[in-house]
């Protein structure tokens, strides 16, 4: 049923509070988990040109950020007994706007994500990223309130 579980995370402890749910579902259905971590662009290409930042320097900044994100995720995974296949996908982009597109690309069966339910008054129950994913995800979404 849920053979491929997508787990978006910002690397925080709060987001990983939902990981046991994803892990248990993957175990139950003999599935795998793909951890998705997205970061906003540091600066857009036009801004690079205006500020005279070389593409090489920008690419090095992105590479460093990706290395750090992978390290944070690997450290977070150490607190769990991970006995299912896990992939880590790092992408550049705005999680609120681009996450659903990536979920569609990765061909998952279910998105499992955490929310603290913080945000403006209109989004008290669900966080803004989680709310957008629930509304626009091409696959079912399980939101774990932490």
Describe the structure.
By secondary structure, the protein is an alpha/beta fold. It has one domain: HUPs (Rossmann fold, 3-Layer(aba) Sandwich). 45% of the residues lie in helices and 21% in strands. The chain is built from 6 helices and 5 strands, in the order βααβααβαβαβ. The protein has a 5-stranded parallel β-sheet, sandwiched between helices. Strand 4, helix 6 and strand 5 form a beta-alpha-beta unit. Helix 5 runs parallel beside helix 6. The protein is globular. About 4% of the residues have low confidence.
Q: Compute the separation of the termini in Å.
A: 25 Å
* Architecture (CATH level 2) name: 3-Layer(aba) Sandwich
Total domain count: 1
Order of helices and strands: EHHEHHEHEHE
Sheet bearing the most strands, described? 5 strands, parallel
Radius of gyration: 16 Å
What is the average of the pLDDT values? Answer: 85
Number of strands: 5
């Amino acid at each position: 049923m849920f053979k491929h579980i997508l787990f978006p995370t910002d690397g925080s402890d709060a987001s990983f509070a939902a990981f046991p749910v994803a892990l248990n579902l993957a175990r139950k259905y003999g599935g795998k988990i793909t951890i998705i971590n997205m970061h906003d662009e540091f600066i857009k290409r036009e801004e690079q040109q205006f500020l005279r930042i070389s593409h090489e320097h920008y690419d090095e900044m992105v590479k460093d950020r990706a290395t750090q994100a992978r390290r944070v995720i690997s450290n977070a995974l150490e607190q769990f007994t991970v006995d299912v296949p896990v992939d880590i996908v790092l992408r550049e982009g705005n999680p609120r706007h681009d996450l659903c597109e990536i979920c569609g690309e990765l061909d998952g069966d279910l998105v499992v994500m955490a929310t603290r339910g913080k945000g403006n008054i209109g989004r008290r129950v669900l966080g803004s990223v989680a709310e957008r994913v629930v509304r626009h995800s091409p696959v079912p979404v399980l939101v774990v309130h932490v």
